Amino acid sequence: MSSSFEKYQKRRLISSYFSVVISIALVLFLLGLLGLLVLNTKKIADHFKEQIALTIYLKDTAKEVEITQLNKTIALAEYTKSTTYVTKEEAAEAHSKEIGEDFMEFL
């Protein structure tokens, strides 16, 4: 009778070892993923910060000097990566190419 009890205890002990090993492996894996996320947080944050685009519409009465001055002011700011000035005509042409039709006909 004791031999069957000992076999049962051995089987139970082996299954508990197996579950402990799997549990520890999963915990270490999750800790590794968390560590990678923490290490790459700065890269991820910088990536999303650089993807912000800002569009500024100017009045038709804006002079070329004012436009140039505004462009330079924005470009010199430390938070600005790049600036691009697009005229009304260039924007209309790009939009026409994008939609495939001349939208000015409808206006």
TL;DR?
This protein is mainly α and 107 residues long. The protein has four helices and no strands.
Largest sheet: none
In whole angstroms, how far apart are the ends? 96 Å
What oligomeric arrangement do these chains adopt? single chain
Global outline: elongated
Radius of gyration, taken over Cα atoms and rounded to an integer in Å: 32 Å
- String of helices and strands: HHHH
Query: How many helices in DSSP terms?
Result: 4
Portion of residues in beta strands equals under 5%
Can you tell me the number of structural domains?
A: 2
| Overall pLDDT confidence | 85
Uncertain segments are none
- Sheet/helix structural class: mainly alpha
* Helix fraction bin: 55-70%
* Total strand segments: 0
InterPro entries: FtsX (IPR004513), FtsX_ECD (IPR040690)
Transmembrane segments: 20-39
Protein name: Permease-like cell division protein FtsX
Domain FtsX extracellular: 53-106
Element layout with pairings:
Elements: H1 2-39, H2 41-50, H3 64-76, H4 88-99
Structure report:
This protein is mainly α. It folds into two domains: 2-47; 53-105, no CATH class. Helices cover 68% and strands 0% of the residues. The longest helix has 38 residues, at 2-39. The radius of gyration is 32 Å and the shape is elongated. InterPro entries: FtsX (IPR004513), FtsX_ECD (IPR040690). Residues 53-106 form the FtsX extracellular domain. One of its GO terms (cellular component) is membrane.
